[in-house]
Design goal:
By secondary structure, the protein is of the alpha/beta class. Helices cover about 45% and strands about 20% of the residues. It has helices at about 5-10, 15-20, 25-40, 45-55, 70-90, 95-105, 110-115, 135-140, 155-170, 180-190, 225-230, 270-280, and strands at about 105, 120-125, 145-150, 170-175, 195, 205-215, 215-220, 235-245, 250-255. It is globular, with a radius of gyration of 19 Å.
Length: about 300
């Protein structure tokens, strides 16, 4: 039986070698094959994703939308996340650079350019959505000054990704190193783009003052992003890396001021969480954080 998480199962020295030797059309199929094997042996791990998916798609206007086909697409999206992570880490630098420049396009890049002109840096909030692993490098390769945070499952992966990030001009901060907030503020003060994730539910410190409906659940939101935005004075954008057919991608940027129908009085971070929810409903296979929804309070029984 595979030991540990799917992440550790896939990030072996052999798989690192496979990703350095073979092209993406091969390694993507290889990752999906290994992922399906893992979930066959560890169905409990697959069920952690699917249980939350079924609950979200079992009420309101989404009732009945969770089909077996959708379940398989969601699991395949999990595998594609690891394919993208390993490709970024272990495929040759020159090949990866060409891959990102040719296959990723930016949508609404003018929002980012305008925000940078203010001189206070930019907070780009993303999520466990689509090809998020490609987001920082895709911006840096186009000349944007980028800093991102990461948590590494293995020491080998950390070493590889930090080296790869420095090659493309991305500064990586390790969430486990401590004193992370001062480093974030320094980054923004220097006029850089700071990339962080909205949906790190395992790290949320819920606030009773910030309550909203999130995927049909009563969610007490984390205040970290709101505090960071207030202390830095930096503008906030949503950035999601959508997958397109043919292993192509688009980074879609949105501003919270565009969306006035979202919850009022809770801050821009809440507005962007509602936009994330919208995008996940539109493409549930792009989100690979389904299992973490168990951390959010269930709706009260009728």
């Amino acid at each position: 039986m595979p030991a540990g998480t799917l992440s550790r199962f896939l990030q072996t020295p052999l798989n690192a070698a496979v990703f350095s030797w073979y092209p993406p059309q091969v390694t993507r199929c290889y990752t999906r094959l290994l992922g399906r094997r893992y979930f066959r042996v560890r169905p409990d791990e697959a069920e952690r994703h699917l249980r939350q998916l079924r609950e979200v798609f079992s009420h309101g206007h989404r009732a009945g939308a969770c089909t077996p086909a959708l379940e398989q697409q969601v699991l395949q999206g999990v595998f594609d996340h690891y394919f993208e992570k390993l490709l970024l880490a272990y495929w040759g630098f020159a090949r990866m650079r060409r891959y990102l420049l040719r296959r990723v396009r930016l949508v609404h890049a003018d929002l980012l350019d305008d925000a940078l002109h203010g001189g206070r840096g930019v907070l780009v909030a993303t999520a466990h959505f689509g090809a998020v692993e490609f987001l920082p490098a895709s911006l840096a390769l186009r000349g944007y000054p980028v800093t991102a945070v990461a948590r590494f499952r293995t020491a080998k992966l950390k070493e590889t990704l930090v080296r790869r990030a420095s090659q493309v001009g991305v500064e990586l901060l390790d969430l486990d190193d401590g004193a992370i907030v001062p480093k974030m503020l320094t980054t923004l003060k220097a006029g850089r783009i700071f990339v962080t994730e909205l949906d790190e539910l395992s790290n949320w410190r819920p606030s009773a003052a910030k309550i909203m409906n999130f995927f049909g659940r009563r969610a007490a939101l984390d205040r970290a992003l709101e505090v960071l935005q207030r202390r830095s004075g930096s503008p906030l954008l949503l950035g999601l890396m959508e997958r397109l057919p043919g292993r192509r991608y688009q980074l879609v940027l949105e501003s919270p001021v565009e969306h006035h129908a979202a919850p009022t009085g809770l801050g821009d971070d809440a507005l962007l969480l509602k936009r994330l929810e919208h995008h996940v409903y539109e493409a549930p296979d792009h989100w690979y954080n389904w299992k973490e929804l168990q951390r959010i309070e269930q709706p009260a029984a009728a």
